[in-house]
Amino acid sequence: MFKSLLVFFLFITISTQAQSEFKFTTNKKKISIPFQLINNLVFVPVNLNGEELTFLLDTGVDETVLFSLDETNDIKFNEVETVKLKGLGKEEAIDAYKSSNNVMSVKSFLDKHHTVYIILDQEINFSSQVGIPVNGILGYNFFKDHLIKIDYRKKKIIIYSNEDKKSRNQLKSYHKDSISLELNKPYVHLNITKGKLKQKSKLLIDTGNSDALWLFKVKNSEIIYPNQVIDDYLGRGFSGSIYGKRGRLSALEFGGITINEPIATYPDSVSLKSVNFVENRVGSIGGEIISRYTVFFDYKNNAIYTKPNARIEEPFEYNMSGIEVQHNGLEWYNETIEEKTNGIKVYTDSGFENRLKVRFYLKPIFKVSNIRPNSPAEKAGLKIGDKITVIDNQNMQRMTIEKINKLLKSEEGKTITLEIERNKKPLKIKFQLKKIL
User: Fold this and answer.
1) What is the model's pLDDT at position 360?
2) Do residue 16 and residue 119 come from a single domain?
3) 349 in a domain, yes or no?
4) Model confidence at 237, in pLDDT bands (50, 70, 90)?
5) Could you please report the per-residue DSSP string of 227-261?
6) How much of the chain, in percent, has pLDDT values that exceed 90?
7) Which of 63, 173, 185, 287 is the most exposed, fewest CB within 10 Å of its CB?
8) Is 93 exposed, middle or buried (0-12, 13-18, 19+ CB in 10 A)?
9) Model confidence at 7, in pLDDT bands (50, 70, 90)?
10) What are the tens digits of pLDDT across the range 304-336?
11) Eight-class DSSP state of 364
12) Domain final position from 127, 162, 197
């Protein structure tokens, strides 16, 4: 399975009191917001102080975080002060700024007093890992005051007005789980099964984590590794790279349904040193599972409602190649094509007219960003920094990170052929996908 692209657990080193409150600016009883779904993650269009941006919608963070702006963006921030942020990863706290009383809207959902934490460290920017420009993360304040539905199949978020009492009638056909809100994040108790051992486990509901399940093997924890695990690079947090293990569990019970053989991820102890654990928490349930449901978040009544969608029976797969690929911008490319003439040849004094034309266009650049030790890709000779120009005879012009990830976890035994560029020299590399979990 591909890495957890966005495992951003935000822990602020100063005490904050949220003043934000999103309100309806329309008389309608609900607001529908389309979103982009990439690797199980929800990206929504937002307007911050007059600028159109894209944010990850993440129940796993408290405050709103901004970490990337385009050169064309010109945002003025109010009431700025210096703070430090800590997060999942091995490095120390990072410098940031806190800005209060900003105006943020998501369509007709408006907050005139929004607090934003601004990070200037460009290594935090994860746009290259998802293949679209991402400017920040929106968390608790979006969810706290209204009933919110995320329909992963239709790729729509529905926000219901508190005056719309009829909207709650549809919840009767959904499974209800009680949640607790601690440090402004939702937690749920679920049964996790390893072999014959079933454990009731307290998990963060984290829409900003693309993996299925994260479990923390820490002091006094009863979490036990599966019989077979692999060492892997898991992603980046606010404080650095995250490493750990992956393994397949027997089952997880969520939304009144038993989910068989989900893949669990276990961050190492170094990555967990900055995590501020709430009492009895053992991990997180992420987008690979949550996206298999239609979900209602009801923070005001401490509940979550779920109904499985068409993906519920899909097996849990992972990236069998051992490589992580990131989007490294765009480059100009040209090719020579023959102009169509409907069979008519034009003769001039110098001979038949040359119908060959040169066409220029932009195509994405994809590079290998990480390689799992002893993986098929490493054994075949791939290296970090290799530029992928062709994958399985497909030009990279119409490729996306999501399509590449899907290909690399497609089927055991599949031969992957890559044409790469290393030090400006072309190479061709082949390897077979091998299932090890």
Assistant:
1) 55
2) yes
3) no
4) low
5) SSEEEEEEEEETTEEEEEEEEE-SEEEETTEEEES
6) 50
7) 173
8) middle
9) very low
10) 999 999 999 999 988 899 888 888 776 665 555
11) E
12) 162
399-427: pLDDT as tens digits: 888 888 889 988 888 999 999 999 989 99
Establish if 381 belongs to a structural domain: yes
Residue 78 is part of which domain span?
10-162
CA angle 138, 142, 144 (to 5 degrees): 130
Q: Does some domain include residue 167?
A: no
Q: Rounded to whole angstroms, how far apart are CA atoms 343 and 144?
A: 66
14/21: higher pLDDT: 21
Pair (197, 127) in one structural domain: no
Q: Which of 135, 123, 133, 370 is nearest to 234 (CA)?
A: 370
Residue 285 resides in a domain: yes
The domain spanning residue 198 has which CATH number? 2.40.70.10
Q: What's residue 3's pLDDT?
A: 33
Q: How many CB atoms lie within 10 A of CB 392?
A: 12
Give 106's contacts (C-beta < 8 A, 6+ positions apart).
Answer: 22, 31, 33, 44, 45, 46, 47, 138, 142
Confirm if 137 and 64 have CB atoms less than 8 A apart. yes
The answer to whether 317 and 347 are in contact (CB under 8 A) is no
Residues 208 and 282 in one domain: yes
Residue 167 backbone dihedrals phi, psi, to 5 degrees: -60, -25
* Number of independent structural domains in the chain: 3
Mean pLDDT computed over 70-77? 76
- The first and second tokens of residue 86, run together, are 């800590």
